[in-house]
Amino acid sequence: MIDTQVHDSGLGDADDDDFDGVIEAYDSQLPDNRYLDRELSWLAFNKRVLELAEDINLPVLERANFLAIFASNLDEFFMVRVAGLKRRIITGLAVPTNVGRSPQDVLTDLSTAAHELQERHARVWSEDVRPALAEAGIEVVSWADLADDERSDLYEYFSAQVFPVLMPLAVDPAHPFPYISGLSLNLAVRIRNARTGRQEFARLKVPPMLPRFVEVKTADAHVRYLPIEELISENLDDLFPGMEILEHHTFRLTRNEDMVIEEDETENLIQALEAELLRRRFGPPIRLEITEDMDDVTLDLLLDELDITEHDVYRLPSPLDLRGLFALSGLDRPELRYPAHVPKTATPFQPPEQNGRADIFAAIRKEDVLVHHPYESFTTSVVAFLKQAARDPHVLAIKQTLYRTSGDSPIVEALIDAAENGKQVLALVEVKARFDEAANIVWARKLEKAGVHVVYGLVGLKTHCKLLHVIREEDGVLRSYSHIGTGNYNPKTSRIYEDYGLFTANEQVGRDLTRLFNELSGYAIEKKFKRLLVAPLHLRKGLLRQIDHERRNAGAGKPASVRIKVNSMVDEQIIDALYRASQAGVKVEVWVRGICSLRTDLPGVSDNITVRSILGRYLEHSRIFAFHNDGDPQIYIGSADMMHRNLDRRVEALVRVVEPAHLAELTALFDLAMADTTSSWHLGAEGEWTRRSTDADGAPLVDLQEKTMTQVQRRRRARAVR
């Protein structure tokens, strides 16, 4: 075993100072060019998403879905990352960059790369996925493709369902240029007044509540769709009677939706947040997407009125906004999708008899339970645990953190039921969860009205940890039942996000969570946790100590390895620690979904570092940290990515997994992910990612997610036999 202080996240001050000295001494020996640009690395991640849409071996509706995911991802990237970079440049604030280049150069590179990706995205749709859908009997057509009777049917639909909700807005001395909301789809229309001969301009917003693709009636099993903006465009005469339509073009604006709240300067966080949400709607323009056929007169007018530069214009083939392809997910064509997978109930949580009800508390008392979503059910584990706690007369208190959840969530309803049943219920709601702020405020107030104690965390920090703590009286003694997860308490995303959750009745974990919740809801400041590593005070140094322990073991000639699975690997201190470990001979394996600033092409520095990325039907979301520890493995799971915000500006928690079967399961998953026989992307020179999905003979490599489904089924059957 390594020394106790590695297990404890509370570290003595003297030890901290000595450890910092070691870090600084080694930093000076590492090359200056040791980091990849984080923003360009994010674009490389979205490029991997696009490569899934390009994969002809995937079901075609899944390929369309990946196109929609790419578009949605890129929107958020512009609204937050590019917007934040521009804001800092304009206001003169320091722009964090770890690659030694000016912020303006970084912004230029981002713009170039984003242009290339958006053009490629549009080509994949028009030249590849759209024809493949048509071949499968799903056509997205243009007005020119329609027969007269089809146009007549669509005109009836337009007159009855579309025309009444359209609002053309003129631009003239009496009508200033209208506000263009972020991500809305719009038509720029230039017309000539037949009476005066004057040219006029009008803006027409495509109503977002209407279907993005309008179904064209057909006599056979084929389905055909027309983009709604084309239907509107072809019937502009009804909107501008007596006018000559000169030009009409589709455009779309992206605004700055990054949020800045000075929490220490506000008396009421909710009110400040609501004001900031209102301001977000009117954020400055960041990107203007236009159809490739837009004329210069119309474009110049938009540039002038929107106060945006031509550098921020993205000229693309129609249709714009391919997020609309999400609408195809409702089609009943299972043969064009991944094979259906129904999450299984984890074996310890299965009811003793058919149609019976499992006793979640009894199962957790018997043994720690590690559940792997979505292969194993969130509903029959986390939701069932909370529902049983809400109605159990022996449960005295429930404490839970909530970062993102659905508005109709059974999680929220269970907390309300618990409060109404007279239990002490504490919900720590993170109202600053990006793009979920408004929804979180709504259900936080719903919880308050039901008698739940709702708190909003610590000033200046986001509470991102995934914790659920239940206190139950058993034979006159209070007992803790805990859940620590890697993903949000959200039943909807649990079906597509890959995550782990640990259920335990371990007394030490219970004491750690009691102290942590006291810190989050009150004024207690805890410095020591036994089974947890907690940010922002202790997590960074706890991980650095673990990595450095492996470095020292390698130096002593002992086997040493570090394995990390995260969404993002950006933090320079963690990366430098991994470089130093690599230099000492430690085998470093990093499994990252998204951003990675770590390089694998630095001779003498990263020779022992391997980086893989896996994308597929599920979003890889769990975080795992595994250390060889001279044969006594130390493995943690939790909520933290290796980013500044997670380690320094968020409350995060990792829990150490101790059961041998669980350690073996996590190790086997990592073995599979890093195997050369598994399909994945490999990080190589200059930050380039190369997909390896077939072997030298062209045979497909192992799909990790499909393999995991099979293994979970087999493991479940084996446990049932026991």
TrEMBL record:
Q: Which residues form the active site?
A: H464
Q: Which residues bind ATP?
A: N73, Y497, R593, H621
GO function term, MF aspect, one:
metal ion binding
PTM per UniProt?
An intermediate of this reaction is the autophosphorylated ppk in which a phosphate is covalently linked to a histidine residue through a N-P bond.
Q: Which Pfam families match?
A: PP_kinase (PF02503), PP_kinase_C (PF13090), PP_kinase_C_1 (PF17941), PP_kinase_N (PF13089)
Q: Which GO terms describe its biological process?
A: polyphosphate biosynthetic process
* CDD domains, per the entry: PLDc_PaPPK1_C1_like, PLDc_PaPPK1_C2_like
Similarity section: Belongs to the polyphosphate kinase 1 (PPK1) family.
From the Swiss-Prot or TrEMBL record, give the protein name: Polyphosphate kinase
